[in-house]
Structure formats: structure tokens, C-alpha cells
Backbone:
């Protein structure tokens, strides 16, 4: 189930990630004129952030079109909670993008993807939707998604796939169609934290040898600029789960 680089579709779009993970803010110029009237605000820029150009990453072989628009994609899958807060901004202006659809998909604790169960050697129910879906960003460019900490499969480190779309049409069945795809990438996890998670009962049943970040063929050791999440514990134990944050800058049109 390793992502095969020889079968990848060439990526022509480019994307940036705010290396500091800071959200965009408006910087007002406070220089007063002779009348003591302040000058108008400048174009919004990122607060204390540097926009770093980076390449997109392969979507892999397990993408399925038309998934649900929903904030909780965990369904009944076993694993510790993962609460993602992903902020999307325009790479040129660092202005937040509202109503952009942030879509993710990833494997369960056993390393299986919905719609493709069995490829990691397990027999489990497959409804084609678990651990898949997305939400629209709010006025601050923020998308919040609840899921579980992913498992792993042979040849790849723990990761989440992500796409960012604009101008989608929501459908009556809770899905979406159309729009423009601005970004395809992957999110990655601290090796220290993944080692702790892998020792939990829900993940120990996955006996496939685990590929580390350093061994992975996709992750390029670029930190946040390559999709490495900032992880914060949700409680005092590993089993309480983690909050994961990242700010994505995407190139429009």
C-alpha cells in the first residue's frame, strides 16, 4: 500500500505554508497626518509570520470523490481523539480564505482506508466513508475537524491527506460538487508522539512495521512548511488525544 511515486500525477500548482502557524491579521498604519486623522489600513498581512513557498504532495491512491461535508469524520472508528484546526490563507496577501472546503482522508488504527479495506491485511466493515470528509472555512479561514489519530500501513509514516477547494456546491445529500482545487498535500505527526500513540492498545494490534518520518519517501523534513502539525495534548494522558494545528497558504487561480 505504499504511495508509488512512479504513478503520481505531476503537481503543477504551488502552495505555501506559514512557517510560524500564525493566523492572518490586519496591520493598520497609525501614522497621523497634520489633521490627526489616521491613514487607512494597509493590505492585510500575516502577523509576525513568514510565507514560505513549498511544493504540493501526492494525493496517493486512496482518494474518493464526493465525500460528506461534516465536522466529525471519526464515525465509530477506534482510536484516540484528534481535533484539527486548520487555517487557510491566500499566499500572496496572507488574507484568510472563507468558504474554502478543507477535505481530509486517512487510514484507521489498523492502517485501512474506507473504500479500500483489506489492502493492509485486515477484515473489517467498509462503508466507504469513515475517516473522510471536510468542512467550509469560517470568516477567519479556519476549518475545524474531529477525527482519530491515524494508524499506519507498510512503507508510509503516519499521515493525513488534505485538499483545499473553493467555490464548491453543497448537495442535498450532505456532500459537495464542482469548485476549484487549490491544494493537495499531506499532514504529518511528531515521531515522539506517534511512538507514544503506537504503544496504546488500539494501535498495538496493527502489527505492520511502522515507517518513521525520517524513513518516509514523501515527507522531506521541512517541518511546518511540509505539513508537520503542531500537536497539543487534550489531557494528561496520551489516550486523551491531541489537538493539531497548522496554517496553510494556497495560491488562488
Residues:
Amino acid at each position: 500500500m505504499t504511495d508509488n511515486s512512479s504513478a503520481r500525477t505531476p503537481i503543477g500548482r504551488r502552495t505555501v505554508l506559514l512557517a510560524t502557524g500564525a493566523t492572518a491579521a490586519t496591520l493598520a498604519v497609525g501614522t497621523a497626518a497634520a489633521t490627526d486623522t489616521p491613514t487607512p489600513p494597509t493590505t492585510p498581512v500575516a502577523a509576525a509570520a513568514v510565507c514560505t513557498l513549498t511544493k504540493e504532495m501526492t494525493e496517493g491512491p486512496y482518494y474518493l470523490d464526493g465525500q460528506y461535508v461534516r465536522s466529525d469524520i471519526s464515525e465509530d472508528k477506534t482510536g484516540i481523539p484528534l481535533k484539527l484546526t486548520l487555517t487557510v490563507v491566500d499566499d500572496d496577501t496572507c488574507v484568510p480564505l472563507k468558504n474554502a472546503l478543507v477535505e481530509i482522508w486517512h487510514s484507521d488504527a489498523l492502517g485501512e482506508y474506507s473504500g479500500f479495506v483489506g489492502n493492509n491485511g485486515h477484515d473489517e466493515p467498509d462503508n466507504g466513508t469513515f475517516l473522510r470528509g471536510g468542512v467550509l472555512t469560517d470568516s477567519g479561514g479556519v476549518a475545524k475537524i474531529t477525527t482519530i489519530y491515524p494508524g499506519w500501513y507498510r512503507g508510509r509514516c503516519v499521515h493525513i491527506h488534505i485538499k483545499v477547494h473553493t467555490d464548491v456546491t453543497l448537495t442535498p445529500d450532505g456532500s459537495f460538487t464542482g469548485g476549484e482545487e487549490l491544494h493537495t498535500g499531506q499532514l504529518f505527526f511528531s515521531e515522539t508522539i506517534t511512538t507514544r500513540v503506537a504503544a496504546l492498545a488500539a494501535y498495538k494490534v496493527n502489527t505492520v512495521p511502522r515507517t518513521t518520518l525520517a524513513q518516509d519517501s514523501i515527507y522531506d523534513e521541512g517541518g511546518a512548511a511540509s505539513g508537520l502539525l503542531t500537536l497539543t495534548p487534550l489531557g494528561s494522558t496520551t489516550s486523551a488525544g491531541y489537538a493539531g494545528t497548522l496554517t496553510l497558504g494556497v495560491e488562488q487561480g
